[in-house]
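User: Quick one: structure for sequence A, then sequence B.

Assistant: Sequence A:
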Amino acid sequence: MSAGAHHELDIGGRRLAIGNLDRVVFPRTGTTKAQLLDYYIRVADVMLPHLRDRPLHMHRYPEGVEGPRFWQKQCPEHRPAWLPTVPVWSRDKRANIEFCVVDELAALLWAVNIGSIELHTSLHTRHALERPTTLAFDLDPGAGANVVACTDVALRLRDLLTELDLQGVPKTSGSKGLQVYVPLNTPVTYEDTKPLARKIAQVLEAKSPARVVSRMPKALRAGKVLVDWGQNTPHKSMVCAYSVRAKARPTVSTPLRWRRSRPSRRRATPRSSRSSSTTCSRASTPTATSSPAS
């Protein structure tokens, strides 16, 4: 098979042209476009529910992770006729942006085929653009902190949410940190959720000032975990569950679950949780262990 070969596939009755399957998209691991597409096929059953009905924010790497890259909100004009879109008004452009919507496997593979290694979605659906279905917190370790520190803060955040009668659901970011989502089962707007997310982050910082920061300046973040609440706005997005991340080596934003376990006998780290009987573990799904490089 030549690197530039194109193939037409039938995916659920959709005709889809796929090209450059031999292209190496992760040079450090030799991971090819064919392997990346194969991963998304295998994970589609559990990923599509997180993509469905949501505006797609594409992070495109047409030549792989070491080549040119760009963010794209406007769905390309060359999209298939069957691919749904949703118009979203842009105050900056003073015009609608037509976002792609990925509701099926063919749409997912189309997006990946044009270089969308990472798939990000809005916190709302196309049916209610001002009504988020979740609160989102992005836990980002500052210099000197790590994912263990993020786990500690995630547990503290979970406990605070429980006090508010809210349920937190964790996942890895696929990068350095963790993310915690709070499903919403009542109709609210971003005018409700953004101030709430900010207040929760501030309370968490007040409770654990040596471990947590809720403000963005990097000078404040050394040795701490930033609880980023700022994604709770209509024009921003979060990386989708099971999305590959465009790092030097392919990683995945993986859903986790809270798990009870025996306290560790190993020496505690400076940022370890005092509640060592509770940890985060990878969610048990048929495809959560899949890797693009496997």
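Sequence B:
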Amino acid sequence: MPGVTSDLSIPIVDLFAGPGGLGEGFTTFRAPGGRAPFRVRLSIEKDFWAHQTLTLRAFYRQFSPGRVSGRYYDVLRGTADVESLFARFPEESARAREEAWNAELGAVDQSELRRRIDAAVSQSDEWVLIGGPPCQAYSVAGRSGYRRTPYSKLLLPAGA
């Protein structure tokens, strides 16, 4: 496919992805020689608005550097809508929507979660799991006890 990035990278699964900043850091990293060793294959975020940004960035990453449509920038400027952009690039938008999953960990069906993770990493022996702690549980308000949320229970110590 013209303009689409190679899929010979180490896949990343990003939990509590927010708008995708941690994943962006990994995907913009370049090894000596300029190769991008990482590719986000699945990002999971429960917040609707953060997920919208996550999906748009996933769409952007479907293209080689400098090959994304100018219409993408029109969307960022507010002079075009996301759906018209996605309609022009159905394959890339379908991959972006598959990559960016609007779901709440702990509330989604565990078999669906496993299916999506397996699909994201099945072509590689090596893969990376990243994710920030859920902000609601680890914010200043959460630490002060002012606001308790169930999200702090989603993180378990290694080996648990």
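Helices lie at 21-28, 48-60, 70-77, 82-88, 90-99, 110-121, 135-138, 140-144. The chain has eight helices and four strands.

User: Thanks, that's what I needed.
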